[in-house]
Amino acid sequence: MEQIIVNGLYLGAQYALIALGLTLIFSLMNVLNFAHGQLYVIGGFVTYTVSVKLGMPYIVALISAGVSLAIIGAILEKFLFRPVIRKSVREESTMLLAAGVAFFLDALILLLFGEKQRGIPKIVNGVFNWDFRIIMPYDRILIGCLAVLFIVLFITYMQYSKTGRAMRALAQDKVAAQLMGVNVELYSMIGFALAAMLAGTVGGLLVSITGVNLGMGGPTSIKAFMMVMIGGAGVISGAIAGGFILGMLESIGLTVLSDFGDITYLVIFASLMVFLAIRPQGLMGKPWG
Amino acid sequence: MLTLQAKISALAFALLLIFGVPYLIEISGRWDLYYTLTSVALLSIASAGVWLTFYIGRINIGQGAFALVGGYTSAILVVKYGVSFWLTIPLAGLMCILVAVLVGLPILRLRGVYFAMVTLVMTEVARLTALALPITNGAKGISSIPLPGGVSLFGLTLIPDFAELENVKRGFFYVAVVLMLITFAGMYRLVNSRIGHLCRSLQQNEELASSIGVNIAKLRLIAFSISSFMGGVAGAIFVGISQSIYPASFPVKDSVDFMLNCFLGGLGYVFGPMLGTLVNYFGWDLLFTAGEYQLLIYSSLLIFLMLTLPNGLLSIFSKMKN
Fold first, then answer.
1. Is B293's CB within 8 Å of A107's CB?
2. ipTM for the complex?
3. How many CB pairs lie under 8 A apart between chains A and B?
4. B302 neighbourhood in chain A, CB within 8 Å
5. Do residue B132 and residue A263 have CB atoms under 8 angstroms apart?
6. Residue B197 CA to chain centroid, in angstroms?
7. What angle in degrees, to the nearest 10, is found between the helix axes of B32-55 and B168-191?
8. Of the N and C termini of chain A, which has fewer Cβ atoms inside 10 Å?
C-alpha cells in the first residue's frame, strides 16, 4: 500500500507539471494546445543532446531544455497563434492550428533527433529501501522532488511576481485587464513561453528515467487533457489536483487491476466520463469554462 | 429551394463522379486511384458527421470511435452471424446511434473544450474497449472477412457478388461515391430545413434558443446521432474493403483528421468536409515523393493555410466577392 501511494505521488508530481502548462495556455488564450506533448518530447531530446552528445552536466542540460522550449513557445505564440486568433471567425480555428503545430513539431523531432528511444545515464545511483515496504530508486525520488520544487516555484511566481499577477488578471477578464493597462500581447507571449518551458522541463526530468521517443507526444497530450478535465480547464489548482489524481489512479489501477489485463486506462476513462456527466466543469473549474 | 443552375451543377457533379472518373481512370490506367478515391468518399462521409456536430457548436474529436464501433459491428455480424454485408451497413449505423445516445446524454451538456477533450478521450476508450472485450478478439482483431455477397430481388441482380467481380475496387468505388452523394444531398437538405435553422441557433446562443422554446437537449442528441450514424456507416464499409479490423484501425489520429477535414474545407459550408477530405488526403499522398520531409511540408502547408485562410478553403470565394 505504501508503495502504491509513493508511486502515485511520484507520477502525480510529473503529471501536474505537464498539466500546469496546458491549463495556463488555455486560461490565457482559450487555446487547446494539441502540441503540448510534442513540446515535452522536445524537452527530453534537448536534454539528451546537451548532456550525452555535448557531455555537459545534467543541470545545464535541464536548464537549456527549459530555455530552448521557452523560446519555441514564444515564437509559436507570436507568429502563429496570435495572427490566427485575430483573423478567424470561430474560436475553434486555433485547434486546427494547434494540430498542425503538433504535426510540424513531430516532423521536426523526426528530422533532428530521429525516431530512436533516447535516455541518459542515471543521475544518482542506488535504491531507497524502507523495510521492503517502499522501494524507490534514488533518482526517482530526486526527480519527484525536483518536480514538486518546480510546481512550488511556478505557484510562487504566479502569486507574487508582477508578471504572474498580470497573467492572472488576463485569465480572469481579458477586457478588464486591458483597461487596467495590462499589455495583453506581451503577457500572452510570456504565458505561452512559460507553459512550453514547463512541458520541456518535465521532458528533461523524465528523460533520465524513462527516456523519450518520437511517439510519446500524442499520448502525453491526451493524458494532459484528462488531468485538465479532472481539475477543471484553466484553473491552476485544478491542474495540480488533476495531475496528482491521475497519477494516483494510475498507480492504484496498475496494482489492483493487473489480474484483469491491461484495463487500467479503460477504467480511468470510463470513470472520467461518469464524473464529467455529474460535474461537467471538473473539480474546480468555472461552469462552461 | 435550389435554383435551376444549382440543380444542374449538382447533377453534373454526380454524373462526373459516377461515369467520368471511372472513364478517366480506365484510360489513364491508374487503377490505384480507385482505392484512393473510395477512401476520400468514405472519409468525407465521416467528416460530414463531424461537420454536423460543429454546426450545433460542438467540437467533435470522437468520430474515430464511431467508425470503430461501426466497423466492429459489421465485422462481427458478418463473421459470427453470417449476416449479409449490405445489411450490416445500416445496422452498424444504428449501433452507433445507440452508443451516441448513451454517451451523448451526459456529455452533450459539456461545451467548448470540455466536449472536445471528452470526445478525444472517447476515441481512446473505443480502442481500449476493443482491446479488452472478448468478442472483438483483442489485439488480433478480426481478419479474413469475406467480400460482400450479391443481392438480388425477383431474379434481378441489384448488387453483384463482389467475390466474382473482375474489379472489386471499382465496385467499392461506386458504393462509396453513391453513398457520399446521398449523404451530402441529405446534409444540404437538413441544413436548409427547419431543424437546420434551429441547429444554427444552438451554435450561436443556446440560452436564447432554449428561452424561445427550442428543445435544445433533443436537438443536440439528434444531430449527434446523425453524426455518429455517418461515422458508423463509413467504418462498416472500410471493413468491407480492407476485409479486416483491429483496435488500432481508427486511432486518435483519424479522429483529429476528421476534424481537420472540416476546418480545411470551411466550417461555414456544407460541402466543406468533402473538399477538405479531398485536399487533405491527396495533399498527404502527393507529398509522399518528398520522402522524409513529407510530414514537415504537410504540416507547414497546414499552418500556412491556417494563417492565410483561417475560415477554410471555401472562404476564398466569399473573399473574392468582397
1. yes
2. 0.80
3. 141
4. 96, 99-100, 103-104
5. yes
6. 22
7. 20
8. N
Grid coordinates representing A234? 484553466
The answer to whether A220 touches A206, Cβ cutoff 8 Å, is: no
Contacts of residue A269 in chain B, CB cutoff 8 Å? 121-122, 124-125, 128
Residues in Cβ contact with B303 at an 8 Å cutoff, skipping those fewer than 6 apart = A80, A97, A100, A101, A104
Q: Which residues of B touch A23 (CB under 8 A)?
A: none
CA within 13 Å, CB half, B276:
36
- Is residue B255 within 8 A of residue B116, CB to CB? The reply is no
Instruction: Kindly report the pTM of this predicted structure.
Output: 0.86
Output the CA–CA distances (angstroms, integers) from residue A156 to A11, A19, A196, A198, B163, in the order listed. Answer: 22, 17, 18, 14, 69
In terms of Cα–Cα distance, which of B74, B108, B117, B92 is closest to B232?
B92
- Residue B109: φ, ψ to 5°: -75, -25
Report the distance separating Cα B179 and Cα B45, nearest Å: 8
Q: How many helices (H) and strands (E) does chain A have?
A: 12, 2
Q: How far is CA A191 from CA A33, A71, A187, in A?
A: 13, 12, 6
Residue owning grid cell 457520399: B180
Q: Among all chains, which residue has been given the C-alpha cell 526517482?
A: A140
Q: What are phi and psi of B153, to 5 degrees?
A: -130, 125
B131, B247 contact by CB (below 8 A): yes
Q: Residue B278: CB partners within 8 Å, gap ≥ 6?
A: B40, B44
In 3D, which of A250, A256, A243 has the Cα closest to residue A284?
A243
Contact A266, B247 (CB under 8 A): no
How far does the CA of residue B236 sit from the closest CA of chain A (Å)?
24
Instruction: Give the per-residue SS3 of B248-277.
Output: CCCCHHHHHHHHHHHHHHCCCCCCHHHHHH
CA gap B183, B238 in Å, rounded: 16
Angle between helices B216-242 and B168-191 (to 10 degrees): 170
Task: Provide the residue count of chain B.
Answer: 322
Which residue in the set B111, B129, B263 is minimally distant from A288, CB to CB? B111
pLDDT digits (tens, 9 = 90+) for A171-228: 888 888 888 888 888 999 999 999 999 999 999 998 888 888 888 888 888 889 889 8
Per-residue pLDDT of chain A (289 residues; tens, 9 = 90+): 788 888 889 889 999 999 999 999 988 888 888 899 999 999 999 999 999 888 889 899 999 999 999 999 999 999 999 888 888 777 777 888 888 899 999 999 988 888 888 888 887 788 887 777 778 888 888 889 999 999 999 999 999 999 999 998 888 888 888 888 888 889 999 999 999 999 999 999 988 888 888 888 888 888 898 898 888 888 888 999 999 999 999 888 888 887 776 788 888 888 888 888 788 888 887 754 4
Q: What's phi and psi for A128, nearest 5 deg?
A: -80, 130
Chain A residue with CA closest to B264: the answer is: A96
* Residue B54 to residue B220: CA distance in whole angstroms: 11
Q: For residue B128, which residues of chain A lie inside 8 Å, CB to CB? A: 263, 265-266, 269
Q: Which residues of B touch A101 (CB under 8 A)?
A: 299, 303
Q: Which of B109, B128, B300 sits opposite A266 (nearest CB)?
A: B128
